[in-house]
Amino acid sequence: MEKEVVVAGAGLSGLTAALNLARDGCDVTVIEKYEKIGGVPTAHPAVDVTPLEEDKLGRFIEAELKKPQVNPCERWNIYAYGQKVPMDCASMNLKCIQRGSHKESLDMLLYKLCVEAGVKFEFGKPLVSQGDFAELPPDSIVATGLYFEAFEGFNIPYQKVFGYIGRGKAAGSTCGVWFHDYTLDYAYYGTAGGNAFCLYFAREPVKEKEWEDFKEKHLLGEEGLECTRWDYHEGLVPVASFSNPRLFAADKILAGTLSGMMDPFALFGVHGSLASGKIAAIAHRDKAAAYDLFVKYTKYFKRNLLLRRLFDGTPIWLKKMALGRGIAFSQRHVESLKGQINRFFMSIPGYNQL
Questions:
Q1: How many beta carbons lie within 10 A of that of residue 175, not counting itself?
Q2: What per-residue confidence (pLDDT) applies to 2?
Q3: What is the pLDDT at residue 1?
Q4: Distances 342 to 256, 336, 348 between C-alpha atoms, Å
Q5: Residues 83-123: tens digit of each pLDDT
Q6: What is the pLDDT of residue 181?
Q7: Rg of the chain over all Cα atoms, to the nearest angstrom
Q8: Among positive and negative, which fits the CA dihedral 168, 261, 11, 163?
Q9: Helix or strand or coil: residue 315?
């Protein structure tokens, strides 16, 4: 008999879990809070920029990852407190990934594969309370992304972030990243498939003057990019605790960023979301095997969260003096430093383990 499985969330991890479950013979229903796939309407179409081993990861999740959804980054500049450093994209395996509900997005590719595999979808089904999650059948997969409802429903700690999301049009597959006084984290933009996406965020409410300066002096002045639409956004990141990664909560299976499958230093989330969707599907057949994989893939979460906290606690004057020089040094000696780069990427779930 087919096993009925409910997946909450039609993002990367939920779609990956649903696809693998359906191919294993399960009767899968995906429920999604919005009226279509692709996440928050004001945040998409988006471009996620991340290191990604598309061939190995594609074989693991049983979905081919290639153009136009996954595009090698052609140009990447980092601006570290005013110092511009052109980066070697190839050594970092940096990819520009199309996201959203349009036909060339990774979300849409996975959605089409799910439909072909017989997955059913129910849109406009929000889960907003602890009771809503409790009413899901046992062993349901909850992959609802970076939204407050699920984190609070399962009592998972998080840090709140504030900022703006910008969208526009641009050619090529490129990226720009800024480290500056206005954020402990960074601001970035990515382009792919003719779309441009920019994220400006901080761990405290943003100052309007600093945001305006970023748009004019940095985004437009240094990279020549202008977004035609900006939307204010409040969100979260799952890095409030060293114990954030968890595969199970009560009688549910967690996936994606809700499960903590995210790099806690640079907040890369795509690789972990896709890998965790597969792990969540495995958990329906063999919970012990899935848990072993999950532990293996999140092994370096604590290490990189500690590094992140040390970085956040570093005085601004020291960052201004050392960060740009350190990044520039790494690019001048990129061949000899490949081992150190790979060790840093160990915190991206599944990146070095696949």
A1: 24
A2: 59
A3: 41
A4: 22, 12, 10
A5: 999 998 888 889 999 999 999 999 999 999 999 999 999 99
A6: 85
A7: 20
A8: negative
A9: coil
Q: Residue 329: left (phi > 0), alpha (psi -120 to 50), or beta?
A: alpha
Reported as a single tens digit per residue, the pLDDT across 225-264 is: 999 999 999 999 999 999 999 999 999 999 999 999 999 9
| pLDDT tens digit sequence for 210-220 | 999 999 999 99
User: What is the reported pTM?
Assistant: 0.95
Fold designation for 4-303: FAD/NAD(P)-binding domain (3.50.50)
Vertex 46: Cα angle to 228 and 232 (nearest 5): 55
Sign (positive/negative) of CA torsion 247, 252, 255, 260?
Answer: negative
Q: What is the SS3 string spanning 113-127?
A: HHHHCCCEEEECCCC
Domain definitions of the chain by residue range: 4-303
Q: Which of 105, 107, 113, 144 has its CA nearest to residue 22?
A: 113
Those residues whose C-beta lies under 8 Å from the C-beta of residue 56, and which sit 6 or more positions away, are: 354
What one-letter code names the amino acid at 321? M
Given a contact cutoff of 8 angstroms between Cβ atoms, the answer to whether 298 and 348 are in contact is no
Average pLDDT over residues 163-185: 92
Alpha helices in the chain (DSSP H): 12-23, 54-61, 106-116, 130-134, 148-153, 208-213, 221-223, 270-285, 287-297, 301-312, 316-332, 338-344
Q: CB of 278 within 8 A of CB of 7? A: no
Instruction: Name 93's Cβ contacts closer than 8 Å, sequence gap at least 6.
Output: 51, 52, 53
Alpha-carbon gap, residue 10 to 307, rounded angstroms: 32
